[in-house]
Amino acid sequence: MNILSNKQSLGIAAIAAACLAATLLAPGCTKDLTFKPYGDLSSVVNTKQGAVALVNAAYTGLAGGGDYNGGWDAGTYSYRTQAMMTTDEGICAWGGDWANMQSLNFTPDFDWVTHNFTKYTPYISIITVDLAKIAALNVDGKDSLLNRYIGELQGLRAEYAEQLYFYYGPFTIKTDAEDASNPDAPYEPRPDKQVVVAQIEKDFQQAAAILPNRFTGQDYGRFSKAAALTGLMKLYMHEKDWAKAVAVGQQLKTLGYSLCENYEDNFNINNKGGANPEVILSVVCSPTGGDSYANYWLAMSLPPDYQDPSGIPLTAWGGYKMPWKTYDKFNPSDKRLKVLLEKYPIGKDANGNIIYKDAKAAGDPGAVPMKFGPDPSRANSQNSGIDFPIFRYADVLLMLAESINEAQGAPNSEAYDCINQVRERAGLTPLKNLNHDSFLKAIQNERLFELWGKAGAGMI
Amino acid sequence: MLQRNALAEEIWLRDNKIAPYYGQTDIKDPALSQFKPIYSSSEIEQAVDYGQSAMDAITRNAFTEQHNLSMSGGNLKTTYFASANYFNQRGVIIGSDYKRYNGRLNLDHNISNQIKVGANVLVSGSTANNTLTGGSNENGGIITAAIYWAPILPLQAADGSYPISPYYPNIPNPLSYSTLTNTTGNNRILSSAYGQWEVVAGLTAKAQFSYDWSTSRTSAYLPTTFLFGSQVNGEASIDETRAYQKTMIYSLNYNRDIAPRHHLNAVVAYDYESGGGDYLSAANQNFISDIVKYYNLAMGQADKPSVGSSKQAELVSSSVVARAIYTYKGNITVQASIRRDGFSTFAEGKKWGYFPGVSAGWVISNENFFKSIAAVNYLKFRAGYGETGNPLTLGSAFNLYGSAQSPYFGDGQVNTGISLTQAANPNLSWETRAGINAGIDFGVWGNRITGSFDYYSTTNRNLLKYVAYPVGFIINGVYINDGKTRSTGYELSLESKNLVSKNNELSWSTTLNFSHYLNYWLERADMDLKTLPKYEIATGKNAPYKPVYGYQSSGIFKGTFGTAPAWMPGMLPGGLIIVDKAGYDEKGNLTGPDGSISAADHILLGNADPKYSFGLGNKFTFKGFDLNIFLSGMVQHNWSPLNGARVLETQMNAHGWNAMVGAAEPWSSQHTESNIPTTLVDGSYAQYQNSAGYWWINSSYLRCKSLMLGYSLPAKLLSGQKVFSNIRVSIDAQNLFTITDYPGLDPELNAGNYYPLVKSYVFAVNCTF
């Protein structure tokens, strides 16, 4: 091998390599690197088909938005559970942080009480952004379906804001879409209470003006006019604006809702699909609904040795109880005790007779707050498809009775009628001849008996 | 049983506020309802011992077998290599095993002296029968089930059924896990082909293509003999993921002496790769018989059989590389390279990055002036600087909308929702890893001792990180190019031939390696700083990349009721005292001690990365025998598993779970001098006490990874036949022992219930034909 040939080949190589390197290293001469995701819905968001899906997503906050049975469901973060565990209504056998709920031992580092603020403020901002998107599709404001979507979103925004306001006091409700979608928007200090109340009131009122009295069929579970008015009534009562509360309550009486025949049908398979005239708003559940849209109440509440007489297998972690001192306030003939058990079934004897265990005699700390019926589909022993009622007409009646009593300084016949409808269904004698204070006390008790295990059973 | 009674009594004392530790109530107060033990003394005496613990029942001795066959051959034009491998492992937990088959074929063919082509195919398949491990509570799997199992119960009833523990009836019977089916089949085909042409002497053009295709399918059935199956009358499911990777490389390589003593190797290459995959699942429930398992999903009678699928975004990368290596006299090397890399997930206009590198090496021992140093026979210095790019593979720079949030309406119909699932970042680009390193390689005393030492310092700038937005924003966070981190460290490796006998009859050699690194933050982006907790150190050597924050503990509170430290009013006796370090002012900034315990009192406890890693190997040979011992270890800290696994109010008392029992009794009103925290949960302070420095313990270990004894049959024994040219038998004991103070199952694993590391013995025969 001689040097000359080496030099020749070096020359060829150098030229070839230099050309190749120069072309390839220069920007431009390269294959397409466009990012190609599959199934991205960015282009659908700004269409009418996308609008309904944005509205649908906004509903998920009612069911905790991916939390473990949060929102109006039955888990740690749910309103229902937190209301029960922080009052005389309930105790939890699991100890640990549950004991802090009972003793109201809260610190800023206790996630259980701070979590929902982190969870629902984004929902409010997202709805604000969605409202702007839908308004852009409905420039002339004449599309009735898009108008309904706007009403649903306003109702939901008010509902989320109201829960946060009741929990945490005044906070900033982002109502400007540009501001809501700017991560660098400056921090705003807490607004005055009036500002927050006025915003929630406005949203509920505008929603009520657009939305139908109730939703049925495939749309059952959406936010109706009745739901918006129920939320509005709670706001007025919270603000002690009794006259306005009475007016809204009386309006609610005209929307076609009534008490169903049996109390327990609000919490079993008969509460589904809009068949129950008492349910104003609920989280519609399914055994395949996952952590948000399946009902875990029975798993949380039933004691481990509970055996349902129907033979339906049920997961039972034995956590939630109603302490005996609260249970003992019930009139023993109250029909509502059918779903609040002092003695519970633990199996059958050889002749098929159900064997009951006396929880009180066994030293359990409280009664079994069964409340919900087992899901007859047997699809899943833990994940039940029984809906979670959010607002019920019985609640409206008791709120109206209370508001009248406060507005007028004493109960009138309408107030008695409201509370006595509820008592009559429970098989209790009607109330009469009470003054303001004793009527208030009676309402307080009745709310416990009727509405335990549903956030806001206590007085607002 | 005794443990449960003792715990229940302590809870009773606390709940009734009994003096002197829990309140001011006299234990003899007639108004008290007396403590009732969970088990009476007669129950304890009559408890049946079933002679076998649940953990023993679910574990077994296991074996592994492996068979390899390989051959190669060819002629001047064509060569081949083929191999086949079979591996079979029976798991130490009942119901778990693994089988793997591999086949490989390589072909190379010379078309002419200048042109060569070749192809490789690798085919592999495996089948694993899995058991369920690694969840929590009732989903904790077989090991959790065995840990929770109350030993006073029989594991299997006389009729063959598997009873459920009445103390915690939500978890399946541990033995019943052996009746479920959960099989994962993996298949992979990796094929590649190349062609190369030596254009002129020293200049080679090459094209390479490869295609990698793999599938993984898990088929499962939960039978009615298993609790979760019986609840739904049998549940069958099939999940499949598939993945592909396509690669295309063109290169031009010049490799030649360009003059005497001057050698050049220059490469220009172009590389284009794309990869992706998809997923499919189906499941059904409510089967008329367990026999059909997952073979006919349509036979199930569930109201809504479940289906699911997804397809990943295709990740595309493209690169151009130019590299030149110049060598002078064979002992001085200088290298320079530049890459231009593109990746599809980055923002428009930000997809490409340039990454240069230079390095040099000098074998000084080859220089004439060095020859006089006889003791050192080899010495090389190395140094370099190089940049490489890290692509973003977990996300991208673009807004994405998905249907993750869908509510139910009607009587239980899902209604599709759309929500923003990824926020755009129009500035998102490459993370650059820039490293300098310097090292030496050496050999002394005729290579009796050889080794190397490397020091490196790597700085990652524009670090890719998912950073949270402030609370309340419409999406949780976004991928950004955060600040800078730096990792500095060193690695030392040594090999010493301690004993070399003349006729190779006896030898002993030792290898040692030792390394250390520290990875920490140099700079952080403003957005990251905004959401960083105030107590966290943002940058510097005290801001490790994987920091562990907790609380400083200063011993156990042993006082009577009413004497708790002022900053922890009402704390339970026997609890860890937390040091009040700081508080928050109105703006959320840290202040000095504020007289109470809060998140502000967090301190840096340590670094989750190990401090030192080391390995030590010794090899002895004597005639046909060889003995290899390999030890490895780490100096590190870890959370103690005892915090979660000990006797604890929320677990043993609430559910009757078993617990790890330490050598000493924890603090209780019966053991008031104990320095071990109480088993009661202090509602006010448990969250702080659970991450107290007390539980951040030394988990350093030294483990005997492998001890292997082998014997090769002497050549003269084999000389009588022509079939075998060499036969070797060996026995290998893996994970024979571990020296550690760590109280958990394994210092290499997290505290938990995962599949345990096994001690195994391998017997092997190796024949060469």
Topology (SSEs and partners):
The complex is a heterodimer of chains A (460) and B (769).
Chain A: H1 3-25, H2 48-59, H3 79-85, E1 91-92, H4 97-102, H5 111-137, H6 144-168, H7 177-180, H8 193-210, H9 225-238, H10 242-252, E2 279-283, H11 290-293, H12 297-301, E3 320-323, H13 324-327, E4 343-348, E5 354-358, E6 366-367, E7 388-392, H14 393-408, H15 413-425, H16 436-451
Antiparallel strand pairs in A: 1-3, 2-7, 3-6, 4-5
Chain B: H1 2-15, H2 41-46, H3 54-58, E1 64-74, E2 78-90, E3 97-110, E4 115-129, H4 141-148, E5 181-200, E6 203-222, H5 227-230, E7 235-259, E8 262-285, E9 306-311, E10 315-328, E11 332-343, E12 352-363, E13 376-390, E14 400-402, E15 408-409, E16 413-414, E17 419-422, E18 431-444, E19 449-461, E20 464-468, E21 477-481, E22 484-500, E23 506-523, H6 526-531, E24 547-550, E25 553-556, E26 576-578, E27 583-584, E28 590-591, E29 603-607, E30 612-622, E31 625-635, E32 637-639, H7 642-645, H8 649-655, H9 686-689, E33 696-698, E34 701-712, H10 715-718, E35 726-734, E36 738-740, E37 760-768
Antiparallel strand pairs in B: 1-2, 2-3, 3-4, 4-5, 5-6, 6-7, 7-8, 8-9, 8-10, 10-11, 11-12, 12-13, 13-18, 14-17, 15-16, 18-19, 19-22, 20-21, 22-23, 23-30, 24-29, 25-26, 27-28, 30-31, 31-34, 32-33, 34-35, 34-36, 35-37
